[in-house]
Design a protein that fits this description.
By secondary structure, the chain is of the alpha/beta class. The chain has helices spanning 22-30, 52-59, 75-85, 104-111, 132-151, 168-174, 184-195, 217-231, 242-253, and strands at 9-15, 39-45, 65-69, 90-94, 98-100, 117-125, 163-167, 200-211. The chain has a single domain, classed as Spore Coat Polysaccharide Biosynthesis Protein SpsA, Chain A. It has nine helices and eight strands.
């Protein structure tokens, strides 16, 4: 019998105590539109004591969707385990508390059509019952992502592994994620800019997810403040100036 075709995309999803949202995440990944090639899903359990490993096991088929485990605590350690086991040239990353749109993989394949594109990030929204404050904050976050990635120097660039795609060759050449508590996704794009300035980080508005964890703006703002403090460990990272932040707001208001 001929060998089955190799997957075009490997989706890596780390999880820890994610029983409330993991099923919705997996269902969204299984419902992807046809991309003309198979894809695989690698779920990586980070030693969850709750029911999420059993939920993941219920979907695992040993081929299309596999359940892996990583004993070292931390989402980036779990992501690295999935990446090592991935067999596709494109690595898609999301989190267990996110649901992706049906055309998410299509957007990744289309966005990576340019061989100079090494990393994609996209648009993140919040649930329908999210507060007005969170919806406004989400609109600002997306405007900021687009403004920074399309118009700012690499020193301002950042990434977010809940809605991200990376060529496998990037990890082969540069190595895995740093196993930091946070900001290792942004560190990767800074490492890329330093060592492969010919390759690009790009923002793709069609790469869309819903972040299920947050429904209140203050909770998301607290998390963003943590990211701001951990970004400081990236030697080349520079926060936006007040004037640049005003420019983000203007770009949002003016569409």
């Amino acid at each position: 019998m001929p060998e089955p075709p190799a997957p075009a995309v490997s989706i890596v999803v780390p999880f820890f105590n994610s029983e409330a949202t993991l099923g919705r995440c997996i269902e969204s990944l299984l419902a992807q539109e046809d991309i003309g090639a198979p894809y695989e899903i690698l779920l990586v359990d980070n030693r969850s004591p709750d029911a999420s490993p059993a939920i993941a096991q219920g979907y695992a088929d040993g081929g299309h969707l596999r359940l892996l485990s990583e004993a070292t605590a931390g989402a980036y350690a779990a992501r690295n385990t999935g990446i090592r086991q991935a067999s596709a040239p494109l690595i898609a990353l999301t989190d267990a508390d996110c649901a992706v749109d049906r055309d998410w993989l299509r957007a990744i394949v289309d966005g990576m059509a340019n061989p100079n594109t090494a990393v994609l990030v996209g648009h993140c929204r919040y649930p329908a019952d999210a507060s007005l404050a969170l919806r406004l904050l989400g609109a600002y976050e997306n405007a900021k992502s687009r403004y920074v990635i399309e118009g700012c120097p690499p020193a301002n660039h950042f990434a977010y592994a809940n809605n991200m795609a990376v060529r496998r060759s990037v990890f082969t050449e540069l190595g895995p994620f740093e196993t930091w508590p946070r900001a290792a996704d942004s560190e990767l794009v800074h490492r890329l800019a330093a060592r492969r300035p010919d390759l690009r980080l790009r923002y793709h508005p069609g790469l869309r997810i819903t972040h299920l964890e947050f429904v209140r703006g203050r909770h998301r703002a607290q998390r963003l403040k943590l990211y701001q403090s951990t970004n400081a460990q990236i030697a080349t990272f520079r926060e936006l100036s007040p004037w640049q932040r005003l420019a983000v707001i203007a770009s949002l208001l003016l569409g």
